[in-house]
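Risk register update: the risk of archive-format incompatibility is retired. Evidence:
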Amino acid sequence: MDHFLGRLGVDHLLESFVPTTDGRVQLGPATALGVLVRNLALCHQPVYALGEWAAPFDPALLGLGPGQVHLLNDDRVGRALVSLFDADRASLLNRLVLDMVSEFSLDCSQLHNDSTSVSLQGAYRDAAGQTRGSKPTVALARGHSKDFRPDLKQLVFILTVCADGAVPVAARSADGNTEDSTTHVATWDGLVALFGRTDFLYVADCKLAARDNMSHIVKNKGRFVSVLPATRKEDAAFRRWIVDHEPTWTEAVRRPRRLEEPDDVYETTEAPWPSAEGYRVIWVRSTAKAERDTESRRARIAAGIDALDALNQRLASPKTRMKAVAVIEAAAADAVAGAGAARWVSFSVEETIEVRHRQETRGRPGANTRYRRIETTRHRLRFDVREDIVAADACSDGCWPLITSERDLTAAQVLIAYKYQPNLERRNHMLKGPQEVAPIFLRDPARIEGLMTCHFVAMVVQALVEREIRRAMAARRLAEIPLYPEGRGCSAPSAPRIFSIFNGVARHHLIAGDGQLVQSFPPELTELQHTVLKLLGVPHNAYRAAQP
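Archived output:
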């Protein structure tokens, strides 16, 4: 961790932008923030447990002096986060990213953007977007929760990574109810200002495909790739067109799947017409997605029929309360819609009258017995599968459209560029998974934004560790290294997995009775640990040497 933080110059940047201005401070904010970044990248613990986490480490490794570990508490770290918010964070992160691009020779010709929601527990009544020192703070609010927690307030974390190792290059926090389509113009402008260029390929999800977003990028000589939303008329028009026409599909990408399963083949074709704005539309067809679409439709149709069968059983009961045709039709429509089969399953209500006769009086029936005619109205649902619509929809199974301003790239190159997008989602997973964003303990919105800045730095370090080891493995033609338990091979090492194999590595000190250090015994490393250090470019002697 210190090796990569040193190459990035993180500690020096923190000291420069968040200096200690009060001589009475026992632990400088830059030092506390450095410990926090290491904690977030290695094994996230609550802020109040930071001192407990740091206690087993050699203080020098964390940038601490002797006896400073006990100074790590939530109040002091919280004040350090406020100092980070008050500092010029934009310049700090810009300097960090530009130095990183130079130090690690990152290719930033293709950038991917996405956002995720971060849920927070608590009322946060003061986090309403008010300013602090002329700086606006993020407003925590309820919005579309990607954590599936609509009951909690949230903020939106917007992240951009490069296509070279999915290394983060920009991030910012937005109000919790921010709609994704409104963030791209500011994000793209910020990337242009950061890198001083507009020719990078900007890739994002379907929220980018809004007229204002695309127009802004193109007018400023930018380039973009996105998914065309299914709500656009171009999508429905092509799906109708493909029923009676056979486009020319060209194989673009072939990806292996599980054993005994055929490869997932991606094919592309140019749309017969451009988008309404005049941009290029490329249709993609995946064999694996076609199988999923077919199975999904079949399952929905079966679920819709089962729902109507269950409703028929209720109608057949003598105690049913559904007597009116309108009520039955509404219940059937809800049942089919709930199964997601309304497009393919039609139904009608069949009404029959059952006639029976009953004696008017009690007793044994005779020649003069009078009978009363009783009519009972029965209802039954008759349903049918709309095979013509099923056949028409099957023609576009596995298909989805891309929209781009790029004319020089082939359809296959556009697809490959977009298919890198899941690597960005991996970074968001790291944010919520191993890093476990939990600003639940920070009641001040300034502290929360400071914590998110530290998370960004931790994500950068994790991404660089993964990039360096995977590039080294490729250069040495190593298909995998035995990182998993029982020596099982790992072909794409992740940062948490890499860090975990060094758990328990310790340096031992022999201390005399008077407290003087007699001798230090450096840690003994396994062959696997030596291999990983070599792949990461960390000198063995530097790793084992005692800190000054």
